[in-house]
């Protein structure tokens, strides 16, 4: 009798343990480093944004996702949608890894004319074009092949079916990935920019129907070839003059991620291939910070919108696996609008600024104006704690070295310094709070600007990130940081010399992500695959 009871107890205990092992981790959106207006997946690992496409009033954001854990692996496409690029709603995983392999990065289009035949004229399909990473022998994960595949949705992106005759592009190559497909109206055809990472090349293919692809050109090696080339994107931008007025000219921009950075080239696309302008061959980074990678832009924005909106993975492969967040790992940048300006030297420079929809989050603001800052009179803001919001600072008559501390407590802060004589701007997060989770994390970046006595900084803060836009988007510096709760102070100090504060505006956004990000809808559903 006792034996039976003991057995039953053991069985009950075993069931309990098993049930515990299967407990689903639920996000609360109140986790300490959970951002409010930056997209993060409810749980688990993410890297690149994928398939950025606007369809039927929704901005779709697919993303590299591990449905099974907080490390890279089992790559699939997670999915979220937004009506305003600020509030995101989680949808079920769109594409799971399958027997064919993992689902790597790629893009999505709306096949409005049903060129693929995967839908009907009345129900044009959404089509995803992505890389499948196939490990030939599971004992040797480095023995893989990469090919380009399609999947499609006939219900506005809710459910997805993999195309029956995949792959659509197979060059029998090991490294061949990250197709960016877009419609090219002048030739009424689809174009694909896709990477040969090891050769530092972007290859171009065209297709009448998304299924049959023909090689049309090659770009590279060029610019920064220090690491593999990934996630290319090619798009046209109207050229603005140095003051921001349209010139009537259009140039093409080719963006390529080079492990840890994103570089861009400005030039010409003739419908087959891209050529960089002679002046556009120098190495130019899209963002000077440490946490901006795999940047991609939206397809299919309505002509009336006219913006080129970009989202990047706000992270860095050097330490991404160790970020101190739970129960998710990986962030997206704020969506940014790209513009192209021709400077007085005749160079075309990429400018960027967060989408104006973010302003709708403003709760309250504080404005300070017209005062001198010198070593005896620093500007300290201690009684207005905030970690989610926007700080705008306009300084003039700068002489010597100016230091700003964001999220400061004693000497812990993200330190921003500017030397008016050299034009050197530095952002230092080596004492910014929690930094010792990875030896690569503490870092300082240097951004050369034109020496000037004026400086305009717009700093977007969201709990664990800082996106700094210098001089109305001339430069961007994106840095993650993990402050302690005491780091709520902001200061501007003139170490040597002085400056005049034209204005400082502090705008607060809601502090809690659960007020902004919607709860997930059964994110583990495997329907539609
Ligand atoms: C870039 C990248 C891509 C690849 C994906 C895999 O971060 O390495 O080249 O498709 O991540 O997750």
Describe this structure in words.
The protein is mostly beta strands and 529 residues long. The protein folds into 2 domains: 37-354, Tachylectin-2, Chain A; 362-509, Jelly Rolls. It is built from 2 helices and 32 strands. It has helices at 2-21, 513-516; strands at 44-55, 58-66, 76-82, 89-95, 102-110, 126-135, 144-153, 161-162, 169-173, 177-184, 189-196, 201-207, 214-219, 230-240, 246-257, 262-269, 274-276, 293-297, 309-313, 328-329, 336-342, 348-354, 364-373, 379-381, 388-409, 412-419, 424-428, 444-448, 455-462, 465-470, 475-480, 489-508. Strands 23, 24, 25, 26, 27, 28, 29, 30, 31 and 32 form a 10-stranded antiparallel beta sheet that branches. Strands 14, 15, 16, 17, 18, 19, 21 and 22 form an 8-stranded mixed beta sheet that branches. Strands 4-3-2-1-20 form a 5-stranded mixed beta sheet, with no helix packed on it. Strand 29 and strand 30 form a beta hairpin. The longest helix has 20 residues, at 2-21. The radius of gyration is 24 Å and the shape is globular. The chain starts with a helix and ends in a 13-residue tail after the last helix. Beta-D-fructofuranose (FRU) binds next to strand 1, strand 5, strand 10 and strand 14.
The CATH architecture of the largest domain is 5 Propeller
The number of helical runs is: 2
| Oligomer description | single chain
Strand content: over 45%
- Sequence stretches where pLDDT stays below 50 over 5 or more residues: 13-21, 520-529
**Beta-strand segment tally:** 32
Major β-sheet profile: 10 strands, antiparallel
- Give the end-to-end Cα distance, rounded to a whole number of Å: 50 Å
CATH class of the largest domain, please?
Answer: Mainly Beta
* Distinct compounds present: beta-D-fructofuranose
Class from secondary-structure proportions: mainly beta
Overall mean pLDDT score? 92
What's the name of the CATH homologous superfamily of the largest domain? Glycosyl hydrolase domain, family 43
Q: Percent range for helical residues?
A: under 10%
